[in-house]
Amino acid sequence: xxxxxxxxxxxxxxxxxxxxxxxxxxxxxxxxxxxxxxxxxxxxxxxxxxxxxxxxxxxxxxxxxxxxxxxxxxxxxxxxxxxxxxxxxxxxxxxxxxxxxxxxxxxxxxxxxxxxxxxxxxxxxxxxxxxxxxxxxxxxxxxxxxxxxxxxxxxxxxxxxxxxxxxxxxxxxxxxxxxxxxxxxxxxxxxxxxxxxxxxxxxxxxxxxxxxxxxxxxxxxxxxxxxxxxxxxxxxxxxxxxxxxxxxxxxxxxxxxxxxxxxxxxxxxxxxxxxxxxxxxxxxxxxxxxxxxxxxxxxxxxxxxxxxxxxxxxxxxxxxxxx
Length: 323
Hints:
Blueprint: H1 17-31, E1 40-41, E2 67-73, H2 77-88, E3 94-97, H3 106-109, H4 121-124, H5 128-131, H6 142-155, E4 168-174, E5 179-184, E6 189-197, E7 207-208, H7 228-231, E8 247-251, H8 255-267, E9 270-274
Parallel strand pairs: 2-3, 2-6, 8-9
Antiparallel strand pairs: 1-7, 4-5, 5-6
């Protein structure tokens, strides 16, 4: 019988796994609330504008009344990859329904300054070989990921039958015809042999139910609907010159705040950041190395050697991050 050695730190000291587990549970308990999702304000009435799309004007169209082989609800990664593979398999009548104005899912909505993926681009971004795209950074910024989503849509012809700014309001199985009956908020009433969903949890903004949010009279918006008309700048990082004389408050201290607050602090007159939770631990933030995805730093997508298989394969390689 073999006995495994306990884990150790680089300096040789033994790691107390039970102590780490207890600490994790303590930190988790700080974030748990008995009211759950009821802590958030529903986006109706005076808060309905937080749901509006500031990026793409809505285009009017006639309702659809046709039949499709596959309908996919959601235009993020799940819908794009599913649609692409179906097209490759010879199924041409694939319709993607998306509430936003374009493909991208969470990357369509989240265009706040500094938005960036925390997973290596070569691992995170789908269909790189198929589209011939080489990520420009180890950790891609939001504009590049959104552009890649659009690239996938164009490459596989998914735009041709997509319904944007459209939400499904009803699904009913018609056993006599072996078809799904699909209804939407745009008056569509069509059928499909198969319906799949990839709607994800990150498409609805959440507002904290804190005192004063009902009566606040200043300008406000959610980071997933960033108002560049008000702040100036753009998703690519242009200066937000319109904030120079403004006092800005950010509610939330998670990953989004970690990314956008430095940009706000450089642009505005003053910037404060606070948590909407009653109890919250703080996180450490530092600079992540994100070298460009040049041929010298990563294998080129579509190379004959097969760039996916040439990534590091030693044990634990996927868990290694450069900070």
